[in-house]
Amino acid sequence: MNGETVMTCIDAAHAALVANTDEIAQLDQQIGDGDHIFNLLRGMEALVTARVQIEAAAFGPALDLAAMKILSTVGGSSGPLFFSLLNGMGKASANETLDIGALARIFAAGVDAVGQRGKTGEGSKTMMDVLIPVARRFEELAAAGASAGDVLAALPRTAETSMLATRDMLATKGRASFLGERSRGHIDPGARSSQLMIAAVCARLAQSS
Ligand code: ADP
Ligand code: MG
């Protein structure tokens, strides 16, 4: 696990967002202002531009670098939130031997940072409704001594179930909360983009491991 691995994950997440642009745009048109996917794509393009630096860095510093790029290029609610995810993961990576237990802790630290930044947990119909269950499952699997293959197969399933569950939730955070009860019946765009990125990263890492 190093900067090249980080860049491989970014490339996988980027490709998944490009392939699902229209769907995510529509989800944010339904309960937001439609810009979510374009905010994310702008960030991904900035990360691709920083490829050489990210690949040359160690794992934690590569995440820190990616976080700073996201902060300076992505607007909306999701810019500072994705900054917090990557920055929280980067900070937690110091002095870690990157085994499955450490990676689970690092991801959980990133998700925690998002929670602090956005002041929300589960049940508000946001990306947190995917990120928290995935972080929890990751830590459970790590504690149970699961193999990398098992983790990479399991996390996309947790992400998908959790993403689908946002459809019936009432939004109480972000723009979608302005709709009140009318926010029900639509999947949260941030939950969908997070789920797609998690699935793509896991699939790519499963291929290369
Ligand atoms: P904006 O809402 O400012 O237009 P985006 O469209 O980029 O920003 O992102 C919208 C997504 O951000 C939502 O779908 C939701 O998942 C997520 N979100 C909004 N507010 C919060 C929050 N406080 N905590 C976590 N995620 C949030
Ligand atoms: Mg939006």
The number of helical runs is 10
Average predicted local confidence, pLDDT? 97
* Element order: H for helix, E for strand: HHHHHHHHHH
- Gross morphology: globular
Helix percent reads over 70%
Low-confidence stretches: none
**CATH class call:** Mainly Alpha
Largest sheet: none
| Bound ligand species | adenosine-5'-diphosphate, magnesium ion
Q: How far from one another are the termini?
A: 11 Å
Whole-number total of structural domains: 1
CATH architecture: Alpha Horseshoe
Count of beta strands: 0
- Which fold name fills CATH's third level, the topology? Serine Threonine Protein Phosphatase 5, Tetratricopeptide repeat
Radius of gyration: 16 Å
CATH superfamily: DhaL domain
Share of residues in strands: under 5%
- What class do helices, strands and sheet pairing give? mainly alpha
Protein name: Kinase
GO biological process, one term: glycerol catabolic process
GO cellular component, one term: cytosol
Domain DhaL: 4-203
